[in-house]
Each structure stands twice: as C-alpha cells, then as structure tokens.
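User: I'm putting together notes for a lab meeting next week and I want to include a structural view of one of the chains we've been expressing. I don't have a solved structure, so I'd like a prediction I can at least talk through. The sequence is below, exactly as it appears in our construct file.
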Amino acid sequence: MRILYVAELVGKAGIYAFKKGIAELKRESAFDFVIACADGATGGNGVGRGHASYLRKLGAQVLTTGECCFYKKDAVEHIDKMPYLLRPANLNPEAPGLGSRIFKAGDRKIGVAVLLGQSGFLRLHGNNPFSALPILLERLRQETPYIVVDFHAEATAEKRTLFAIADGRCSAVIGSHTRVQTADETVLAGGTAVITDAGRTGSADSVGGADIQSRIKEYLTGIPDWTKEAWSKPELQGVVIDLDETGKARGIARIRRRLPDIAPETAEREA
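Assistant: Thanks for the context. Below is the predicted structure for the 271-residue chain, given as structure tokens.
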C-alpha cells in the first residue's frame, strides 16, 4: 500500500497548493490512500466545514486536525456528520467527532488516528497520549494491519518518545504542528515509519504560513495577529509511505513540490 500524507495546509495558499500539487503527484504515481492535515486550512487556524468538504472533493480521503480542531464553529456543529474529519483521539469522551476511524483503501482497510501532545498547548488539552496509544492501536489492529497515526505535538522529545512506544505496533507515526519539515524520516527497527514533522503546505516564504512582516510586528508588540496570510512560493510538503502486506513500512520519503507563484486574488478564486 502506498500512502500520501500531505503536511498541514495553511490558509488559502495551502488549499491552492494542495489542489495543484496533488494533481501533479497523482499523475506521477498511484496512491492507495491520501491523508491531509487540515488544522490550519481556514485562515491558518482550524478548518471550516466548507473547506473540509472541498478538500475531500480534491482527493483527501481523511483530514486530520490538532489543537485547532474546534476553532471553526460550523465544523464543530457538523463534525459528527463528517466522519472523514478527525479530531485528536485523546480528548475527553464528551468531545464531538471521532479521533480514529477505519477507512476503505481499495479492497483493503486502513486505520487513521490523531493524538494531541501535552506540551505547549494553551487552549486545548488532551489526555495522556502515551497511555492512549496502546489501547487505540490494539482496537484498530483488530480490523487492519495498516494503521497511520498523526501525532500533533510541539515538543520533539514527546514525538520521539511516542515513536519508540509505537514502533512495531503500527505502520507509521507522522509528526505535525510545527509547520517546518524535518529531515529525519526513517523506518524504525520494528517496521514503523516516522518523521518528527512532515512540514506545511502553503507559502514557503513565510512564518508558519503567515505573512513575515505581521509576525515580526507581533513579536515586537506582543499583540497576536495571524490574520494576514502569506502567498510567496507556494509549496506542497509531506511524505510518501510504502507498506508491505503485513502493514509494516518498507520506506518513507519526504516530498516538497514547489508550485508556480500566482497572484493572491487568482489563487483565492482557484482555492
């Protein structure tokens, strides 16, 4: 099985890069399943109902989120009707939506789950992901050996520790949230593919997808401002993971697909 994981989409530039980039990638290679992190797809924080539906139509079979999963009211109100949109699995049981699910991938099944780290998040807190992981994987493995976990976390130490716990128990654990692609992709001894962070899809000439000057102003003044999106050098980032028939990873490769620069107003219409 070949899986494409598209790193966190950030704003309209991210949606544009996904639309154009995935079309190119699919012409070059066949993917059995496409996962996209959409935690910043709508305005850089969260994903709205309309964008979630649109990304699914463009080819994302499942959308993962993170600490911004409940930032957009329309998505929260309809998340129970959008089983392809996953929030972290280690939230309290009262939280709406699903944190993991079994999906069809051709004539096979694949389990996808999201976990939220505990370090650095101020507005949303998950239960211990290290305790949640073994229980989650045991349940999913009853239905399929193909399991991918999106670990949305700030701290590298948290990610590397969870990788060690997960090794041999699932197909892959993909780090997300920092929006900076790391160069440490590998297949661990037990057959689990990992990367500390898959990166971001959107403007490569930015600060986490946001306009550079607006971020400089925030750090100088202390006044938060994520409202101005960046457009320069749109790029699709992520990883391609190849799995054998037992669900173990045979390889993981980073991807960075640079797309032509485009005027923001044109890109907005296309996104």
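A couple of points you could mention at the meeting. Helices lie at 11-28, 49-58, 73-78, 129-141, 156-166, 212-221, 264-270. The domain at 2-270 is CATH 3.60.21.10 (Purple Acid Phosphatase; chain A, domain 2).

User: Perfect, that's what I needed.
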